[in-house]
Design a protein that fits this description.
Length: 307
Amino acid sequence: MRWIGLRPDQFTFASVFRAYASLASLEQGRRAHGVMIKSRIKSNVVVYSALVDMYFKCSSPQDGHLAFVKSPERNVVTWTALIAGYGQHGCASEVLTLFDQMVAEGFTPNHVTFLVVLSACSRGGLIDKGWKLFNSMTGCYGVRPRVEHYAAMVDLLGRAGRLDDAYELVQRSSSSGEYPVIWGALLGGSRIHGDLQLARLAASKFFELDPNNAGKYTVLSNAYADFGLWEDVERVREMMRRTRMRKDPAWSWIEVRGVVHTFLVGDQSHQQIEWIRETVKQLSHILSEAVYVPDLEGDHVGTYYED
């Protein structure tokens, strides 16, 4: 577009930043940010929200926070982008601090903000804080909980082992129980804490509500395998074979010096596979010989020593 003489505007850069965020391409994102600065366009909250989101998704939280600080104006979208960024990096305490700061500065959180904060509470195991925020949505902020919020709360309670409370929450809302994501969250908690009866119930509902999703079959199969129910595992796999359903395999990728390296489970096609194997072996050997000594009196978490 620039080559044919057209000048990008705020909406162009917002779209470009979102694209680089989805690719987690930090260097290219930085270049686009540089072009925006040189273009001297009048940026708005949409652009800076996308910029903050891009830096966090590209694993550069410092740049993401700096972009937020330098944003000429802010609204709930900009704040939510910042809060979501810290949530993605597992910083639950920072998420809660920023949420309180946003409210203190007069911005009203929306349903996306609450979803981000509840998810952070779930990952951080902050049950009381999660409950307090969930209950404040309607009463204090006029935000009606959606199915995603119920799923986040069920996940929070399930991870913490409060399966009865999680199941009660599912039953409390008839509308939320109609969505597979709710039962999927309950299934996850049941698997973690070994509640076979609840896992069977959640699995049946999970599958019943979305039977044509190949990923659901895999989740069910793994859940049954966790409990040693091999006949059920084979039954699910047979259903997949009979319906010719296939789940696309997950893959990982990393960019090193401008070259993208991709990896699949069991993939042996990488040119440096032998070197990678040897490096993993050496790291495993080093870790197996390390002895962890906790620091019970000092300020440090602990230290690793070689045996």
